[in-house]
């Protein structure tokens, strides 16, 4: 049979894995024509090709005239046979005798549907009759718009590797995102979702942050909030699993080397936790190593006090009373939390002691003042260790945050409200830091897990949620970058998720996949998401035409639950 | 020449002669299916016709027993694409012009999978009665441009006779393509220990040596070769039964130039399957092998019948005559259909 051999000198061949050979041919039928956005091909009848192509692979369709290559990502695979109906197959087995073997296998063909990613000619047109190959590494990177035809980066910022893409033919390619779209100014923010328990989200973020700090050209610092167990409490320690001899550890080491990321933990990271009320020098952290304590006195926290109220309690009347108190604080008439409580009590007593008793104090009803007093009395207990009712507080030393620096704020011991207080206050402090003209940082990445706690989906708004929406909408201009993680993307406010230029999806439950957040994904991609192995993610990035499945290595630092305290170690 | 070019040239050929482009929406083969079949064959038995014979085939134990590995089929598509009106004095003649595409293929089965054996043979061009074409130079011009113009060598200007002759010529070319392909297979090492299953009767093939390793399978029977009673015994055979073997030959007094001499084959009927409420020919095929096997006929009948019974699955449902259409032969047809332009394409090319 006549075959046209592809000349090696053709300038397009560099995009193809010629060694692997042709894996199929495009076909356009009456009922399923190829379109400018999608094309179909049947898989060549060679076992290795059929077994290796899967959802998420990238293929390259070389036009028969060898004038263009169209890259596509496999979004759907179907198996056709020429069995016309189930009844025909039933009949073929002698009217339903399932044990019957037949001398000829019925013809079967695997038909693959691909979403068009990019073509070399940069023209929007349907794919012509083409031979389909696996792309070379250059082809993969070109298809995602990471590099140009010469293999040079076409990002405006530095490429920040976020994982390794492995194609069906085992060709691997580093996948990076554009720094300018990850931490600004063109776009910003990263969101990762996926079911809990696989350690994927935290590991992915730790790897992404390590990669960012390694490859960024900007002065970036990182703040991580440890919201549960000891997830992030040992990020300054070596990950012992990286040094084991097993396929995953071997692959991870190779990955760090290939991506030029040092296999080092976040050495020099500083850890902060709320003060322990029972221990003047201790903290409430689960970390067994050195940790700094913080608690806030009135001057540090008074602007956050409205956020401590339940939204239904903090109505217009309460807000009116609070304005009066805040005014006194800002005029330095009240300098400690205890003074505030005493002063309110004095106002209530004064009104009650008058004859006849006064029902109104500075425009607000005495009952509202009483309500304010009882709430303020409760807060030091509710936010245990955070509020220094007397004396000076100790804040997190935000001003000491330098380029490459990492702060970990351990808030796992706090109630949800306490966590929101610390997170909200920290966001505000970082905003102020970045707005300071003397600040040498270009940006601060804030990573928080369980983002849904701080910015849940739904119509109701809290001050913190409003602030976070504002941060994700405009924060990139000032350098405040949010890296959020949650189990379900649909449980986080839509604006926050949509404002993220980079999404990472881990294994996701079928119910969650019905949410609008995933409407752009084909059913087959969703099925793959439901079965995604640990260490793999689907990446959507603002500059990628299609999402991509990547693998990422073991994190560079010790997972919290792997830490063995010295005493425990001695027992062993 | 690329197929689209052939169609284009065929169109130009008609218009260059002042002809009319008038493609039919149906091929001559579909219009006149019986024109090609020669039903004048005769038979005489080699076994007792008292009863039919049960083939030694146990189902499902023997369902994989077939040792056939090669399957052949040919296909022709002859479609009138226009006509050329010519005046010869007072005689007005309409010369039909047919586009044809004819092909044959052998599929090889290995590990239960079918693959192309060698390469398919394909021929395409136009049929026309060359002698009636007024400007003979045009014939050479188009031939130089790569258009195959086949002379049907008919007599006179009868429009219907010309069409009938065209169909016969198409069949002749198809048989020649099949003969050539079978010859290639016969001369290859693949034929040494194998039989080639051929769709249709072997009577059409003249070269005795060529069909030595062939088994012809006929699915339609337009004639009866035995008495009514004996033939009805064939029609009432049960599943896995075969008829008596018989010699199958062209008439002794055959002088038809088309048949080019007497041919004789060995044959028997075989019931592949039966089912209630179906016609008497349901699952009934007629098997042919070359006369060379006369000495070993019983062995051949036994093995070939067993193999064919195992070939009854998978079925080719829902195509017509699926009950007797062997699946690998069906795949030969599918392959040939895939490489031949459809009637829709031919019509569209003429109209475009």
Architecture overview:
The complex is a heterodimer of chains A (572) and B (352). Chain A is built from 18 helices and 21 strands. Chain A is elongated. In chain A, a hairpin with a 2-residue loop joins strand 14 (360-361) and strand 15. In chain A, the strands form 4 sheets. In chain A, strands 9, 10, 11, 12, 13, 16, 17, 18, 19, 20 and 21 form an 11-stranded mixed beta sheet that branches. In chain A, strands 1-2-5-4-3-6 form a 6-stranded antiparallel barrel. In chain A, strands 7-8 form a two-stranded antiparallel ribbon. Chain A is an alpha/beta fold. The longest helix of chain A is centred in the last third of the chain and has 20 residues, at 416-435. Chain B is of the alpha+beta class and 352 residues long. In chain B, strands 1, 2, 4, 5, 6, 7, 8, 9, 11, 12 and 13 form an 11-stranded mixed beta sheet that branches. In chain B, strands 3-10 form a two-stranded antiparallel ribbon. The radius of gyration of chain B is 22 Å and the shape is elongated. The mean pLDDT of chain B is 89. The chains are: A alpha/beta (572), B alpha+beta (352). Chains A and B meet through helix 2 of A and strand 6 and helix 7 of B.
Largest sheet of chain A: 11 strands, mixed
Largest interface: A-B, 23 and 22 residues
> Radius of gyration of chain A, Cα only, in angstroms?
30 Å
Residues in helix, % of chain B: 25-40%
Number of strands of chain A: 21
User: What is the H/E order of chain B?
Assistant: HEHEEEEEHEHEEHEEEEHHH
Number of helices of chain B: 8
Structural class of chain A: alpha/beta
